[in-house]
Design brief:
Layout (H helix, E strand, L loop, with lengths): L9 H53 L3 E2 L1 H8 L3 H13 L3 E3 L6 E3 L1 H12 L3 H16 L2 E7 L4 E7 L21 H9 L3 H13 L2 H4 L7 H12 L2 E4 L6 E9 L5 E10 L10 H16 L7
Antiparallel strand pairs: 1-3, 2-3, 4-5, 4-8, 6-7, 7-8
Length: 299
C-alpha cells in the first residue's frame, strides 16, 4: 500500500507564500532607502568637488594666472596631489592649460572667454549703484557716481537721503576739476593732458580767494600729488558754500580710472577727512566696486 501523505495545512502554505512574496519587497524597500540615503551624500560630494575645483581656479587667478603646482597648492591650502587631480579635470574642460616648457599651470582658453564676457558687462555705474544706496542708508548722505565726459567730470547716478541736503547738482551736472572732490580725483589719477589743460583754464578763471587755497608755486601739480598720495580727495566749502565732500576712485581691470564715487553733506555735520567715518566708507565702497570691475591692487 502506498503511504499516504497528509495534506499541508492551508495556514502554513499561506505563510510560506506570503514570506516568499515579502522577501523581494523588503529587499526592494531596503534598496530604495539605501538609494535615498546615498543621494544626498552624492550631491554633497558633487557640490564639494565643484567648490574645490573653483577654489583651485580662483587661486590660479589670484596668483596672476600662472603658477607652479606647489605654489597653487599652498595658495588654496590643499595637498599638491589633490590639487593635481582637479587640475587634470580643469585642463580637460579647457579652463586651465599647462606650459610644457616650465610645467607651470595657466588659465586656459575657456577661462579667457569667461573673463572677456565678464569684462563686457562690467559697467561701473551698475556696479556702483548698490554702494550709493548703502552710503545713503547707513550714513544718510547724498552720494553719486561720475565719469569723465567731454566737458569734464559728469554725474550719471545720484542718490539722496530722506532729508536731502540742498545742492544744485543733479544727474548731468559737470563738476569742477579743481574745486570739487570728484574733479580732483580725475585730475590727480587720470593721466590725461587735456584734463590738465582744462584744470589750467579753470585756475586762470578762478577767484583769488580760491587760488589762495592751493600751492602758490605749483597749484595744479601739488594738488595732483596730494590726491595720488591719498588715493582720494576731499573739499570743504570750495565748490559749494556750506557743502563738504569726499570722493574715491573706481578703477577697471586695466588699472585705469573709470569713475569716481562721491559723498557730500552740510559742512557743519559732515567730516570730509579721508580718515573720517564718511571718508573710510567711501573708500571702502570704491575699493569693493573696483574689485568687481576686475581691478587688482598692486603692492
Amino acid at each position: 500500500m502506498n503511504p499516504t501523505h497528509s495534506p499541508r495545512p492551508a495556514s502554513m502554505e499561506s505563510r510560506k507564500n506570503t514570506t516568499s512574496r515579502a522577501a523581494p519587497a523588503a529587499k526592494a524597500a531596503k534598496s530604495t532607502r539605501d538609494a535615498s540615503a546615498a543621494a544626498p551624500r552624492e550631491r554633497r560630494q558633487r557640490v564639494q568637488s565643484a567648490q574645490t575645483g573653483m577654489a583651485v581656479l580662483k587661486g590660479l587667478a589670484r596668483l596672476g594666472g600662472r603658477a607652479s603646482l606647489s605654489a597653487l597648492a599652498a595658495c588654496v591650502s590643499e595637498s599638491p596631489a589633490k590639487v593635481h587631480r582637479y587640475l587634470v579635470s580643469l585642463i580637460e574642460e579647457g579652463l586651465v592649460a599647462q606650459d610644457t616648457a616650465t610645467q607651470q599651470y595657466l588659465l586656459g582658453g575657456e577661462a579667457m572667454m569667461i573673463g572677456v564676457a565678464a569684462m563686457r558687462q562690467a559697467d561701473p555705474v551698475r556696479i556702483a549703484e548698490p554702494a550709493l544706496v548703502r552710503l545713503r542708508e547707513t550714513l544718510e548722505v547724498t552720494s553719486f557716481v561720475a565719469v569723465m565726459g567731454n566737458k569734464g567730470p559728469t554725474i550719471i547716478r545720484f542718490e539722496e537721503p530722506g532729508l536731502p541736503v540742498t545742492v544744485n547738482v543733479r544727474v548731468g551736472s559737470v563738476m569742477s576739476l579743481l574745486w570739487s572732490s570728484t574733479g580732483r580725483v580725475f585730475l590727480g589719477l587720470l593721466d590725461d593732458a587735456r584734463v590738465l589743460a582744462q584744470a589750467g583754464d579753470e585756475l586762470a578763471q578762478s577767484d583769488a580767494s580760491l587760488r589762495a587755497q592751493l600751492d602758490a608755486r605749483d597749484p595744479v601739480g601739488a594738488l595732483c600729488r596730494e590726491v595720488r598720495a591719498a588715493r582720494c580727495a576731499s573739499v570743504r566749502d570750495t565748490n559749494l558754500k556750506g557743502i563738504s565732500a569726499v570722493s574715491a576712485p573706481l578703477f577697471d581691470h586695466t588699472g585705469k580710472l573709470c569713475a569716481a564715487l562721491t559723498a557730500l553733506g552740510a559742512t557743519g555735520g559732515f567730516d570730509a577727512s579721508p580718515e573720517g567715518p564718511v571718508g573710510r566708507a567711501v573708500r571702502r565702497e570704491a575699493d569693493a566696486a573696483s574689485a568687481l570691475l576686475g581691478y587688482v591692487a598692486r603692492g
